[in-house]
Amino acid sequence: MRQEFQTRPEHDDTLELLSLDEPFEPFALSTSDTPRVSIVIPVHGKFAYTIACLRSLAKHGASAASETIVVDDASPDDSAAMLSRVTGLRLLCNEENLGFVGSCNAGAAAARGEFLLFLNNDTQVTSGWLDALLQCFEDHPDCGIAGSRLVYPDGRLQEAGGLVFADGSSWNIGRFEPRDAAAFRYRRETDYVSGAALMIRREVFQRIGGFDARYTPAYYEDTDLAFAVRKLGLHVFYEPASTVIHCEGISAGTDLSTGMKRHQRPNQAKFVDKWATELAMQPPTGTPLEQAVCWRRRGRVLVVDVMTPEPSRDSGSLRLCAILRILGEQGWSVVFHPDDGRASSNEINALGELGCEVLCKPEVTDLPGWLRRHGHALHAVMLCRHTVAGQYADLVRRHAPQAKLLFDTVDLHFLREQRAAELSGNAAMLRQAESSRRSELALIQQADTSFVVSLHEQALLKRLLPSVQVELLSNIHVLHGCDRPHGERRDLVFIGGFGHPPNSDAVRWIANEILPCMRQSMPDLCIHVLGDMPDAARRELATPGVVFHGRVAELGPWLDSCLASLAPLRFGAGVKGKINMAMSYGVPVIATPVAIEGMHLQNGVDVLVAEDACDFASAVRRLQADATLWQQLSAHGMDNVNNHFSARAAATILRKTLD
Questions:
Q1: Which of 67-71, 419-423, 564-568 comes out lowest in average pLDDT?
Q2: CATH for 300-472, among 3.40.50.2000, 3.90.180.10, 2.60.40.1180, 3.40.50.1970?
Q3: Which residue in 46, 451, 570, 595 is a FRET match for 399, CA 20 to 30 A apart?
């Protein structure tokens, strides 16, 4: 009520709405004889809105081929005559008024695309809107319908998917809320999406029989379509990356007793009669909205890490993003909180594509407060790294006693710190390692289940704490495959950010000892260092043959052209994402014994092991000279990733733990 009666500008300038007052001049729409998407727009008068909608389509093109079909439903004005002057538009004219349902069905019957996209004429689309809906179908083979994020011209959110209650009544999720709030920026399954911007495969629409004519002229036809799609075993998704501005009420008004709106209540009764069995499984009237939004999910799972994951930054981020995706695929409502409270717009959108809601500033300023309000609804809480788990484990037990407490070690910090202390001989570092050891072991005892990433760490914890539940949840990688043969490759890569102590030590070893040793017999050899690197360190370690590229957007081009990847780590713990990543592209790896620990790798079969600088140089010479060895290591490395570091293996462990 407060938002509804607040004074606000009629239009939000950041939406870049096209003017309704612009004089009409003929223009052209993108079209195709073999469209992938057929955009169907029913119209009945309101020419100014229709032409603004079409201009927005012309302005915001898509990578997918499309056609635009306008169905003029016996408009009382000269809409048809004017629209006939728009190049590329397919114009259908109803001889008599068929209403929204009849006009949409007529447009669908004339469509040629694989997908139908029903769009109201009182809408304007935005950049990327169409491709985002298609991406939802690409990411979810069981997607039956995908709908856009609808916003009002004044910038407020109009709909982030829709709820249907047991009595057939419905509600637009997020109505009147800030449109960019993180709570409405993640893809998720929903009860229905508005027909104002709805995508469905043409074959599925035909199989269902189109919009049900019992709802003629309009209202509840989109909700009915969603229920029919689910009856086929498919799902309905809200896609926040697709934003459409909707002047709700322009085409039908808002008065439930007059005009088109007068059909809303009678059609609700028809809907209840048709779907009585299915409605019995919907949330009862009065169910809190937060609970109703998650009604189709198995429960809520909260995941907390130090910061928002960024897959191009480190292997831990890559692994966490894969875990979040798997949890969503297994039916959980997933919520992520970065302990530093920060998440950029791009990071929120990236996790949103995985179906994950982000709790961050300014909406969520502290996790303890959120846990007090929402802890009762959590099925499980996963705390990543001992620094995070140490802060929140007791709070989770207090505010979510029913939730499973999961501790994701990421790697055993105390083991890494202990090895670094032994390498340096630093007594202070050794004391820090012992402190971390006590902290981590206490948290592992407190948790219901702890995750480690290597068999070595799992065996170590079983010796130290025989009664605890420890599961192997290792790195998770997609198998990219090897595209270029041995003869087309040269140079070496090292993958890893300088901020991680084992990586910074490795880069120094490369610059100071390993590369000089290699260049004695291979003077033109270069090592490309890919990862965040401070300017001061670049200047300090600058040497011929070492090229610092910083963090790169895509590792693929580098891994498709290099001879081998180096992992000269002298201390550390866990399994090494740099090794998994290289092997996923079929790139042989030369690594220290510490680097391959617990990774199911055998020297000379899956990997080449080197203990000192001369060993690394010798291994590179072997790979340059022996194409058969190179091919063997490439193939076995890919097998290793597929067998031990796939999403399939991780999904099995998560299902076992959470079920």
A1: 419-423
A2: 3.40.50.2000
A3: 451
| Cα–Cα dist 622/212, whole Å | 70
Packing angle of the helix pair 345-353, 315-329 (nearest 10 deg): 50
Per-residue confidence (pLDDT) for residue 256, from 0 to 100: 54
- Please, are residues 131 and 62 in contact by the beta-carbon 8 Å criterion? yes
The domain made up of 486-644 has a fold known as Rossmann fold (3.40.50)
Is the fold of 300-472 the same as that of 486-644?
Answer: yes
CATH architecture, domain defined by 30-248+259-293: Alpha-Beta Complex (3.90)
pLDDT greater than 60 at residue 251: no
Residue 252, Cβ neighbours under 10 Å: how many? Answer: 20
pLDDT digits (tens, 9 = 90+) for 345-354: 999 999 999 9
**Spatial distance between the Cα atoms of 470 and 460, rounded to a whole number of angstroms:** 10
Q: How confident is the model at residue 252 (pLDDT cuts 50, 70, 90)?
A: very low
Q: What SS3 state is found at 52?
A: helix
**At which residue do the structure tokens 């102590």 appear?**
501
Name the pTM for this structure: 0.86
Other Cβ atoms closer than 10 A to 287: 15
Contact 334, 355 (CB under 8 A): yes
Q: Write a three-state SS string for 502-548.
A: HHHHHHHHHHHHHHHHHHCCCCCCCEEEECCCCHHHHHHHCCCCEEE
